[in-house]
């Protein structure tokens, strides 16, 4: 039987500032993902470090600092989504990290264009609209980081009957 999973999605400051919140949430709901947690939050240095705890190790201080500045430039909308193979499904919906490489039909491909070369030449973060957990283990860590037990919900959705 396919696994029902929960995954953490952040609508990053560029998505919120561009007024894309409703359209992006709609995409997730349209494929039958159930919202089991939702909130708006201004990230601070501590939350950024805990969320991207291995980013500096993976890509260096320059990428970490650019990403930290970008993630704190305005509020984010955090979503906890539940569905069949939700972790991989949401990653498929958002597309690869660099929007310049993301196919049309993915969120990053449809709403952004920034390339790795442009980000590197300008020292800008990759403004790629959304974050989504990369693995089931990461989803568990991030869900607990972003949502307390009383902010995570359980309720029957019609997608279980008709979409999955
Ligand atoms: P994601 O899971 O697709 O978001 O990608 P990663 O976990 O590898 O990286 C996290 C975030 O760091 C990305 O979404 C980007 O905002 C930023 N980032 C990653 N790699 C680079 C890079 O090479 N240059 C810059 N400027 N930002 C990067």
From TrEMBL:
Xref: CDD domains: NDPk_I (cd04413)
Species the sequence originates in: Plantactinospora endophytica
Residue span, Nucleoside diphosphate kinase-like domain: 4-154
Top-level taxon of origin: Bacteria
Protein family: Belongs to the NDK family.
Keyword flag Kinase: yes
Keywords assigned by UniProt, alphabetized: Kinase, Nucleotide metabolism, Transferase
MF annotations from Gene Ontology: kinase activity
SUPFAM superfamilies membership: Nucleoside diphosphate kinase, NDK
EC category name: transferase
Cofactor(s) the protein needs: Mg(2+)
Range of residues in the leader sequence: none
Family matches, as PANTHER family: NUCLEOSIDE DIPHOSPHATE KINASE
Assigned EC number: 2.7.4.6
A matching Pfam family: NDK
Protein name: nucleoside-diphosphate kinase
PROSITE patterns in the cross-refs: NDPK_LIKE (PS51374)
